[in-house]
Design goal:
Length: about 190
């Protein structure tokens, strides 16, 4: 049941972002096609972070069950080092002047759509870099059996996202950049594994 709730919450999160992005300019298909081009990269990093979370949760739960304090002391630091090794290239790419063109090489795309996609991606990357280490922390909580706390954070982050998306996109006039920033920041809640 927690995994189902978590998936539903992530679905609502994505639907809200898609809805608000589509309202920026109702006559343009470039907004959704450009930002949609970047979702596979987002989901790849999300899946990697989620796998790390599940692995850490399993190791922590096992160490608790075995009352193995030595394993507990090594699990979190090792996982955080691995998470930072994944996150550091994301941060470097986000601050580089080159823009992330790699996800856009898959096919023909208008310059307008590609521009929206790259802008979305640039604002998405820093949040993804933060999301990876947060998944380690959520894995530790999951291993300790605190999945209700994780589920509460997932629901709360979705409510915050739905409330703040229009503020960042329309009121602050950030457009797809506001959606990218909002998409990655609070969505760091992995599926509950127990």
């Amino acid at each position: 049941m927690p995994i189902l709730i978590s998936s539903l919450v992530q679905f609502v999160y994505a639907i809200a972002d898609t809805y608000f992005i589509s309202r920026i300019d109702r006559s343009s298909t470039a907004l959704l096609s450009g930002t949609g081009l970047m979702f596979p990269v987002f989901f790849f990093i999300m899946a990697t972070a989620g796998s790390l979370s599940v692995g850490v949760g399993t190791l922590v739960g096992r160490a608790i069950g075995e009352k193995n304090q030595d394993a507990m002391r090594h699990t979190a630091p090792s996982a955080l080092v691995l998470a930072l090794a994944i996150a550091l290239p994301l941060i470097l790419e986000a601050i580089s002047r080159r823009s992330a063109r790699a996800p856009a090489r898959g096919g023909k795309m208008t310059d307008e759509a590609l521009g929206y996609g790259l802008m979305f991606f640039r604002y998405l990357l820093p949040g993804l870099a933060v999301m990876v280490p947060l998944h380690v922390l959520f894995g530790i909580l999951s291993g300790q059996g605190l999945t209700k706390l994780i589920a509460t954070a997932a629901v709360l982050s979705t409510v915050i996202n739905v409330a703040l998306d229009p503020v960042f996109i329309f009121t602050l006039k950030m457009g797809v950049a506001g959606a990218g920033w909002r998409r990655a920041s609070p969505s760091a809640v992995p599926p509950c594994s127990s």
